[in-house]
């Protein structure tokens, strides 16, 4: 493994490890899965395959961050709206979005 890809793999591991601290299934579960995934791919030699795995790791990071943002939004929504208010607001937004789908974009 070349030095730049080695450094990128280590940085990716650290980033995923940091993101896994607040994983819903528990940080221990996440770290066990993370470690086993990295150990499974430790013997890769092909630079294209290594880059493919790094890209996959970046994608996983983005998905985890998106999941955290959604969970944060949902928790915030629960604090500020009652259940029936949230449902009616959601229905209004969905109907507005559905009605605007058929219209062309304005420039």
UniProtKB/TrEMBL annotation:
Domain Complex 1 LYR protein stretches: 8-58
GO annotations of cellular component type: mitochondrion
Pfam families reported for this sequence: Complex1_LYR
InterPro entries: Complex1_LYR_dom, Complex1_LYR_ETFRF1_LYRM5, ETFRF1
GO BP annotations, alphabetical order: negative regulation of oxidative phosphorylation; respiratory electron transport chain
Record-stated family: Belongs to the complex I LYR family.
UniProt-recorded name of the protein: Complex 1 LYR protein domain-containing protein
Species this chain originates from: Entomortierella parvispora
